Amino acid sequence: MSFKTSLCGSASLIALAGAIALGLSAGPARAADPIKIGVIAEAQAIAGASIPQAAQLAADEINAKGGVDGRKIEIVTYDNHSSSADSVRAFQRAVNEDKVNAVITSYISEVVLALEPWAARLKTVMVTPGAASNEITKAVHKDYDKNKYTFHGYLTSASLALSVCDAAKDLLVDGKHMKTAVIMSEDAAWTKPLDVGYQECLPKIGLKVLDHIRFSPDTTDFTPIFNKIEASKPDVIITGISHVGVQPTVQWKNQQVPIPMFGISSQATNETFGKDTNNASEGVLYQGVSGPGLAITPKSLPFADAFKKKFGNYPSYAGYTSYDEVYYLADAIKRAGSTDSDKMVAALEKTDWEGTIGRVQFYGKDNQFTHGLKYGKGLITGAMLQWQDGKQVPVWPKEVAKGELKFPSFIKLTSK
Amino acid sequence: MLAFQILIDGFAISALYALGAMGFTLIFGVSGVLNLSHGAIMVAAAVAAWAAASVLNTDSYTGALIGIFVALIMSFATYFVVVQPIQKSRRIPNEEKEIFVLTGTLLWGIMIQELIAYFFTNNAKTVLPIIEGVVNIMGVRTPQNEIFTAVVCCVVIGLLWLLVNRTRTGKVVLAASMNPRGVTLLGHELNNVYIVVWAIYGVLAGLAGVLLGMFLGVSSYSVGPLTASAFSIVVLGGLGSVSGSLIAAIVVGYLETLTAYLINPAYRTIPALLLLVVVMYIRPQGLLGRR
């Protein structure tokens, strides 16, 4: 045997052995295939950055306890650069190439609304941890068979408005005898139903709406807006802001607008908001489903602490919901005994999971917000927090409150 | 009351716009470079000032100086890494160099923007104001820092005028903007003139960025709109004309403020852009342009 042929022979032997080894290892691996969850989120935005991190934390915890029936959970993340187009591409790639079993995505309503038809087309379960528009769940209600794969893992704008009004009744109307308000919100998909909700519920709790200002999310100079609001002399400004937050807050303080801000202010939920605004945040009141030091359920604080230990900062609001979502997706897969999308949908609809933001249950087919989170006492009510001395302090509801309302000196409470 | 409010706010905004556009137009006037990374450099300065104050806990003056220093470094980086290699390249035909510089600085700006978003997120940051508190001017509650901003802008613009018209270096810069060949014939190294101009540009852009960060706040999203607003002010005033930019900045600043107060804050930028289109039709060289 010449040297050349022996080399060839051994090479083909190795190749053959390799092929057999591959064939053998592929067999048993299939039985313990990981459950893949795609996470498409805004890695560059504070609210979005927590989404993949919290999902990973939940997956690590579940895997450390043996996974779901022996199957590990694998998180596959995609940065969508806050863009709907990028999100659609990521979604297609996640489902078609990376073969994920479910998708957790985005805090931006526009992104989720763009993905909803894709969840239907590709028959893939999708849950959002942070978007709020009513349209997401309304689409499920309208065409259930098509859109049933979408679940809304955060409060709808309608519920958010209710939560703000419930808190305003106790804190402002009963507590500070306030009578009038101006609604100030950014022009975006999620604030349309929010404003409708505000206009409906504020008069009911005894706050007359004097004016309603919607502004472009690109606004940088808020002087004219505050000026207009001040001219109508309201007792409080009810906010609906998420794309903006730092800038209006800083200008509110720099111009010493003497009216408190109360409502939804997503950026204020971030732990870094105080630093980003150089503590102009003092006195800002915002609705949250969670927050550092806010023990909504026994799971809230351990999660927040574990997150901070691992990533160096507390999670954004969408971090809490994203963490819960991995858990109840895993729970649904376990109950369904399968990662088949239709079976997962059926199992998810029966979800009754105590998460970090409350008891998670979804509205059924008959409710106009099909697959939206159920709002109410004993389920999820949200909370009201206030920035005080550089910290986020829960002030409502009473059960979780850790402080009283406190305002910076330039705020003049008109009716006491 | 509303009239005074518009007068005061419009003045502060105009002064800031003028400062931002001044360096931009100077560079074009002298070296023919349209620097589309302008907005990115301004935002980098503001974010650096913010980071210095809130991460390193410096006081607001040191923070502002760090911001301006960062802009100076970025300005030189823009020149030496992006602009000069294109201008000196033998493989790019001369008549295409302007387009290459335009594209190069645009991409450079996007790179800076993405880096800022990556390291500091795309949420807005605000620079710690140098002076806190408000004063009452004829019934208008005005933040003292807004007055400070306007004063600094006016002083710096005045200093720039003195530098260009009253010093030897300035006169060489001015001459270079009129006839670069003539300047080299007089024995001045054109390269040194460019370095001086980019240094002035860096300081101006940095100062404008830091003041903007104090006044309104910036995020990585501001990069595009800031470049666009400097660009439209400079085109309106006449490309390369410093006094034209000054007038254009005041026109744009007041037009925006009037719109925001009297019509709707959401339509703020629209009338100024319409004006730009009209000027392009009637007077393509801009208000005070030579070409």
Describe the structure.
The complex is a heterodimer of chains A (416) and B (291). Chain A has 416 residues and is α/β, with parallel strands linked by helices. Chain A has 2 domains: 31-154 and 297-357, 3-Layer(aba) Sandwich (Rossmann fold); 158-289 and 382-396, Response regulator (Rossmann fold). Chain A has 14 helices and 14 strands. Chain A has a 7-stranded mixed beta sheet with strand order 7-6-8-9-10-13-14. A 5-stranded parallel beta sheet of chain A has the order 2-1-3-4-5, with helices on both faces. A two-stranded antiparallel sheet of chain A has the order 11-12. In chain A, strand 11 and strand 12 form a beta hairpin. In chain A, helix 3 (84-96) runs parallel beside helix 4 (109-121). Chain A starts with a helix and ends in a 20-residue tail after the last strand. Chain B has 291 residues and is an all-alpha fold. Chain B has a single domain, classed as ABC transporter involved in vitamin B12 uptake, BtuC (Orthogonal Bundle), CATH 1.10.3470. Helices cover 74% and strands 3% of the residues of chain B. Chain B has helices at residues 2-31, 38-54, 60-88, 97-120, 144-166, 168-178, 180-185, 190-215, 223-237, 242-263, 270-282; strands at 134-137, 140-143. In chain B, strand 1 (134-137) and strand 2 (140-143) form a beta hairpin. In chain B, helix 2 (38-54) crosses helix 9, helix 5 (144-166) crosses helix 6 (168-178) and helix 9 (223-237) runs parallel beside helix 11. Chain B is globular. The model of chain B has no long low-confidence stretch (mean pLDDT 90). At the A-B interface, helix 9 and helix 10 of A face helix 1, helix 2 and helix 10 of B.
